[in-house]
């Protein structure tokens, strides 16, 4: 994946340097804004970590070994912008100091692995992980797929860059001046190795390290998991935002019950037995069986035990039935929430 | 029959190679060869110009000439050709050779021998020679200049100072993390009896990466506190204490002339 010097034309290299520069600039700005003085040491140490990870020989199924870039795990722990910078710095040191990847191709390598890789890994991880809890196995699967997709997206971009070289840069005799293979060879040649060995290595590192961090250091997974809960960590109000929104929609929709014709079976009050219209509704709801002429004695007796402040969801202060329903729903849900908060507070004090 | 190396042994080998090359580069950069005495800014600019010229030129002879010049610079700078062969030429020959070889046969063009085409031979030569020459020139820079000086010299390329500082700190902590990883693998290797199953090997590898990640995170927090206690408030400064001498201007002229000649020959 590390493109050496001589594989890409100078104009391709220049274009990819130019394409990478805005990402580097934005990443640096965002990291400085987010971390302030912490950005420099964090990025430096993580770049060194990424560098070392690239030297690991990872055991793969089938007995072979492969190298990972570590872009998946860097994106998950640092976020996409931090990952872009950390992987870029690691690639620059690899190119200048160890000759792994060309100096003229630093822009291309950073674009493919650091930029495309980080953004793809982050997007895939966030989409699949959703708001799953930090310790959720879903996060391990999301990380594994994110690493796999990231490394293959990077390889695909590198393959495209290789594949367009013979088309654009050749001499009068048709000799390719740089990478010699056209797209129909370069793309499958690159992708076969990355869809299998390199992809597998990245999958194992991303998924395996997230599984390890879930057990050992879950706080490192919090950066890219906003709203996700951790064991022993209360969910918090913001984490429940979708539920609050759903509850608000339901409150607004409560007057829908008014549209239903007739009376709810069994929800009668003593007055209903003396009102002709209500008696007709009771009969219609009871298979045309006429209700008793007199109010049942038990009903009459118990109905007077408690008088609700908002009888039939219609507070006496309101004329509109719709508003009455909504207000009743708000009061009801508010009381339930308060009851649970009170219970949680008492339980919390009791436990501590 | 020799037992195949385990992934732990291979990783130990990779990590040790990295440390060995760094030690070699540091020793070589401190020796009193010809290139070692040149101003680092001139070397960075000059080597970069020559690498770009190798990428731009369309002449195989010019690229081969540049490779010979690189060999000459290595000899006069007391850089061992054996070391260059071991660390630079052989790995590139193996990697790029594998990629370039099929091109000899499948590149369309005039057949010279069996399925081999003239265009195939030329394109494979371009690829191999460019890769070998460019990596030789970048190796010359690293083997004749201390890393701290290379970083300072990168400022001539107008790299943001914060980026240069991050590069420098990365390089410093890279060796700490390399050694930590090496220690972890060696201790594990010394405690391992028998052969680990595939699943156990993968679990071990990912747990090692996880531990290293965790250690790196805590290290960065410690470094941050240390920097803050020394007055770091987010602004970074760098002392540019290089001075250009007459001989350095001559070297700059020489590097530029060589680069321009290579481009001109292969225009």
What does this structure look like?
The complex is a heterodimer of chains A (352) and B (267). Chain A has 352 residues and is mainly α. Chain A contains eleven helices and two strands; from the N terminus they run ααββααααααααα. Chain A has three domains: 224 residues, Arp2/3 complex 21 kDa subunit ARPC3; 70 residues, no CATH class; 41 residues, no CATH class. In chain A, 62% of the residues lie in helices and 1% in strands. In chain A, strand 1 and strand 2 form a beta hairpin. Chain A starts with 9 loop residues before the first helix and ends with a helix. With 267 residues, chain B is mostly helical. In chain B, strands 1-2 form a two-stranded antiparallel ribbon. The longest helix of chain B has 32 residues. Classes of the chains: A mainly alpha (352), B mainly alpha (267). Chains A and B meet through helix 1, helix 2, strand 1, helix 4 and helix 7 of A and helix 1, helix 2, helix 4, helix 5 and helix 7 of B.
Strand order of the largest sheet of chain A: 1-2
Strand order, main sheet of chain B: write it out.
1-2
Classify the oligomer.
heterodimer
Helix content of chain B: over 70%
Query: Termini of chain B, distance in Å?
Result: 54 Å
Number of discrete domains of chain A: 3
Q: Based on helices, strands and strand pairing, what is the structural class of chain A? A: mainly alpha
The proportion of residues in beta strands of chain B is: under 5%
Describe the sheet with the most strands of chain A: 2 strands, antiparallel
Number of strands of chain B: 2
At the first level of CATH, the class of the largest domain in chain A is Mainly Alpha
Low-confidence stretches of chain B: none
Q: What count of helical segments of chain A does DSSP give?
A: 11
Task: Compose a concise summary of this entry.
Chain A has eleven helices and two strands. Chain A has helices spanning 10-35, 39-53, 71-78, 80-98, 106-129, 137-168, 183-216, 241-253, 276-285, 297-303, 321-351; strands spanning 58-59, 65-66.
């Amino acid at each position: 994946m590390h493109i050496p010097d001589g594989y890409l034309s100078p104009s391709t290299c220049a274009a990819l340097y130019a394409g990478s520069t805005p990402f580097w600039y934005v990443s640096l700005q965002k990291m400085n804004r987010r971390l302030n003085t912490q950005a420099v040491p964090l990025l430096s140490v993580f770049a060194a970590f990424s560098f070392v990870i690239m030297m690991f020989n990872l055991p793969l199924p089938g007995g072979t070994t492969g190298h990972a870039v570590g872009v998946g795990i860097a994106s998950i722990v640092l976020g996409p912008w931090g990952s872009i910078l950390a992987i870029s710095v690691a690639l620059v040191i690899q190119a200048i100091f160890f000759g792994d990847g060309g100096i003229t191709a630093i822009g291309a390598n950073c674009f493919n692995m650091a930029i495309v890789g980080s953004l793809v890994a982050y997007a895939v991880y966030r989409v699949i992980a959703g708001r799953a809890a930090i310790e959720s196995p879903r996060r391990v699967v999301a990380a594994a797929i994110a690493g796999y997709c990231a490394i293959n997206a990077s390889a695909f971009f590198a393959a495209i860059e290789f594949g367009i070289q013979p088309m654009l840069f050749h001499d009068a005799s048709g000799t390719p001046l740089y990478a010699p293979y056209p797209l129909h060879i370069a793309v499958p040649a690159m992708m076969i190795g990355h869809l299998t060995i390199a992809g597998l290595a990245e999958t194992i590192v991303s998924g395996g390290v997230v599984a390890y961090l879930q057990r050992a250091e879950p706080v490192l997974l919090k950066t890219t998991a906003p709203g996700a809960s951790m064991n022993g960590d209360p969910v918090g109000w913001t984490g429940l935002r979708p539920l609050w929104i759903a509850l608000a929609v339901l409150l607004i929709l409560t007057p829908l019950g008014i549209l239903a014709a007739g009376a709810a079976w069994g929800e009668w009050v003593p007055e209903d037995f003396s009102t002709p219209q209500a008696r007709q509704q009771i009969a219609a709801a009871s298979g045309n069986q006429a209700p008793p002429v007199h109010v049942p004695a038990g009903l009459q007796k118990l109905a007077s035990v408690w008088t609700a402040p908002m009888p039939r969801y219609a507070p006496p202060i309101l004329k509109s039935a719709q508003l009455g329903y909504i207000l009743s729903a708000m009061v009801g849900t508010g009381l339930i929430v308060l009851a649970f908060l009170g219970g949680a507070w008492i339980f919390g004090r009791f436990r501590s | 029959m020799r037992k195949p190396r385990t992934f732990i042994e291979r990783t130990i080998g990779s990590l040790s190679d990295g440390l060995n090359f760094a030690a070699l580069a540091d020793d070589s950069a401190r020796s009193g060869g010809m290139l070692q005495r040149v101003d680092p800014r001139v070397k960075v600019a000059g080597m970069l110009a020559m690498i770009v010229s190798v990428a731009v030129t369309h002449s195989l002879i010019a690229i081969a000439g540049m490779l010979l010049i690189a060999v000459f610079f290595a000899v006069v700078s007391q850089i061992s050709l054996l070391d260059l062969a071991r660390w630079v030429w052989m790995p590139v020959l193996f990697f790029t050779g594998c990629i370039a070889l099929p091109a000899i046969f499948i590149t369309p063009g005039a057949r010279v021998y069996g399925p081999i085409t003239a265009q195939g031979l030329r394109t494979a030569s371009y690829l191999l020679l460019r890769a070998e020459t460019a990596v030789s020139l970048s190796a010359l820079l690293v083997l004749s200049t201390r890393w701290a000086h290379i970083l300072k010299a990168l400022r001539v390329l107008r790299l943001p100072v914060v980026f240069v500082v991050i590069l420098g700190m990365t390089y410093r902590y890279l060796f700490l993390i390399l050694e930590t990883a090496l220690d972890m693998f060696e201790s594990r290797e010394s405690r391992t009896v028998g052969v680990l199953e595939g699943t156990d090997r993968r679990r071990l590898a990912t747990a090692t990466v996880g531990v290293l990640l965790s250690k790196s995170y805590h290290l960065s927090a410690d470094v941050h506190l240390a920097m803050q206690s020394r007055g770091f408030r987010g602004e970074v400064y760098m002392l540019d204490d290089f001075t250009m001498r007459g001989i350095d201007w001559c070297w700059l002229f020489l590097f530029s002339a060589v680069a321009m000649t290579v481009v001109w020959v292969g225009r």
